[in-house]
Design a protein that fits this description.
Length: 165
């Protein structure tokens, strides 16, 4: 058993090899029909994005967000559909990702703070001020030590003068 499960090298890339099969007698399906097909794959997921086919061999790419999926902005629940037959060519379901793919999928939501909603974003905002606080307190401590060294030197001079009198 590997410490880190295998991760697809193209985890966040769209499948380039998927193409629609041109059927001379068939008309392309509409975006609404493509969404209805995707709804059968992910029935309770929220529609987030539709990519229309580009060219005669292009495909529909439907992005949906399932409940509990961490990534709000770019969910990974996807369905690729042939624009002529309406056949589902490929499905990407984040609930079936390997541990490594799940880790990669959580990178952006954790980075942006959207993973745990508003409390996480507030926490990230507070953490954003940490470098400023460290910078200011560092300068204040440096100034305190500088003054202390200066006053210590003056005090030692006064003591030396008083001792010689």
């Amino acid at each position: 058993m590997a410490l880190f499960p295998e991760v697809k090298a193209d985890h966040h890339k769209e499948p380039k090899e998927l193409k629609s099969k041109r059927n001379e007698s068939a008309e392309p399906i509409t975006p609404d029909q493509a969404v209805a097909i995707a709804d059968k794959v992910f029935p309770h997921a929220q529609l987030r994005w539709i990519a229309n086919p580009e060219g005669e061999d292009g495909i529909y790419a439907i992005e949906k967000r399932q409940t509990g999926e961490a990534n709000y902005r770019r969910p990974r629940s996807k369905v690729w559909i042939d624009q002529y037959s309406g056949e589902v060519l490929q499905i990407e379901n984040p609930n079936k990702f390997t541990a490594g793919e799940t880790f990669l999928n959580l990178m952006w939501p954790l980075h942006s703070g959207e993973a745990l909603g508003l409390p996480m974003r507030i926490l990230w905002c507070i953490f954003g001020f940490a470098p400023l606080v460290l910078y200011v307190t560092g300068i204040l401590r440096w100034l305190q030590k500088r003054r202390a060294v200066h006053f210590s030197a003056q005090r030692n001079e006064r003591l030396a003068v008083n001792a010689s009198n």
